[in-house]
Specification:
By secondary structure, the protein is mainly beta. It has three helices and 14 strands. The chain is globular, with a radius of gyration of 16 Å. Bound molecules: fe (ii) ion.
Length: 179
């Protein structure tokens, strides 16, 4: 947990100084692992990619923890006006692009930058659960439409700030990775 708090503090410091700062190195050098985030890792029986809100700094950044069931994938998407970075904390993930080759990530690897032009989806094709830590800069809450009004995006989470949104969200057992 101390390493998670340290990362949040460092992200705040760096992004307050420069909201366009590249935080890829910060994520890469951070020794944060799944144990640091285990109290945020909730899952639902019916959901493949379970998104957990860890921290929200309004207008600056958002930190989420995604818990991927085996064979889970999300739909094709972009990130609106937000940039995104992620680090794989457990298991493996594949990032599927539409114009470039797919990229495979294993534990400890960081996706350096998903910018506004990226359209992709992600897949856990491992046999077990995978977990990834995501940073959105700024929080992904709207799609800007050229010449039109911004479309609000309502993120759905299975937990917020370490608390389940309802009783269908269950804390993932830490030993699920120890099989
Ligand atoms: Fe994405």
């Amino acid at each position: 947990m101390a390493r998670l708090q340290k990362l949040i503090w460092a992200l705040n410091e760096k992004l307050r100084e420069d909201p366009d700062a590249d935080i890829g190195d910060l994520l890469t050098t951070s020794r944060i692992d799944f144990d640091d985030c285990v109290s945020y890792a909730y899952v639902r029986e019916s959901i493949g990619c379970n998104r957990n809100l860890i921290y929200d700094e309004p207008d600056l950044f958002r930190l989420t923890l995604n818990v991927w069931r085996p064979a889970a994938q999300n739909g094709m998407h972009d990130h609106g006006q937000s940039k995104c970075y992620f680090k794989v904390l457990c298991g493996k993930l594949v990032e599927i692009h539409y114009h470039v080759a797919d990229i495979k990530y294993r534990e400890g690897q960081v996706r350096p930058l998903i910018d506004k032009s990226t359209c992709h989806h992600m897949l856990n094709n491992d046999d077990g659960f995978s977990v990834s830590l995501h940073v959105y800069i700024p929080p992904f809450d709207r799609h800007d439409v050229p010449g039109g009004a911004a479309i609000p995006v309502t993120p759905s989470f299975v937990s917020r700030y370490g608390f389940p949104v309802d009783r269908n969200s269950r804390l993932l057992r830490a030993n699920v990775f120890m099989a």
